[in-house]
Amino acid sequence: MDFGSIFGNTAAYLFSPVTIAYALAATGLAVHFGYAGLLNFGMAAFMAVGGYGYAISVLSFGLPWWLGMLIGLACGALFALVLGIPTLRLRADYLAIATIAAAEIVRLLFLTEVFKKWTNSAGGLSGYSTGFRDINPFPPGTYGFGPWTYNENDLWNRVFGLIMLALAVFLVWALMRSPWGRVLKGIREDEDAVRSLGKNVFAYKMQALVVGGIIGALGGIVFVLPSAVVPGSYSTSLTFFLWTILLLGGAATVFGPTLGAVVFWVVFAFLGNLIPQLAAAGFLPMTNVQAETVRFVLVGVVLMLIVIFRPQGILGDKREMTFVK
Question: Which keywords has UniProt assigned to this entry (predicted)?
């Protein structure tokens, strides 16, 4: 067994664009669920509209990269409005069903041949990062050491993603310390009590859905910057990975989603490298293909254990978790 490659491939996920993108999307999900109490199972759709909005703006309309990103964020806000108007008055369980169905509808729309001119259907989109890479402040060369060795474009993707993540975390921190954030937490605890004080609960929920949706769309943009937009990336497994990350780090916390993303992807990558090698070496009675699927089973088991034994997550406070009351 090659433990050097196992630990090297695992360590690479500490600063992976995938880890950063999931941390951003989980931060948006924290606004939805952790602070507003909205049981949203459709965050994959927000990531998809953000990534596709950016890519289509650049490829189909020839817009500059920064304007494409703004359009991607606007798509996230617009999708939140379209999703929220008919669903935010639903109970939590019905809201979960509606949002996961909406996410599948969005994914299938990007797959359909009707919009192939803009989405390229199942083939996805690529070749939209030229403008973004043209503003790369790092000269050509190799940076870092060991498993954290990057060329100038890889480093720029990571630095830009970390800057966006820092801005998103700061925004959530500032909002939740404001009067708006305190009202949002009150709605999470008892929306009838907040409504009796004259607050428009629906408007606050909608605002939270939009804010979290924009952050989720930003995560979708960071997710596709290094390579391509592929509709297969936005399956339901993405949503459940985000929920595992959120619950692992702490749903009602500012830094919990970031910590959860790092822990999740490091462990996920470790198992993805370790289990197939154990199977190949004869220590596990399974094929390499079967070994690859075992880690998905383990993710499901971990999610159940988190909900049962530590629903508040690593950084969370159990008193703030509405679903354990």
Answer: Cell membrane, Membrane, Transmembrane, Transmembrane helix
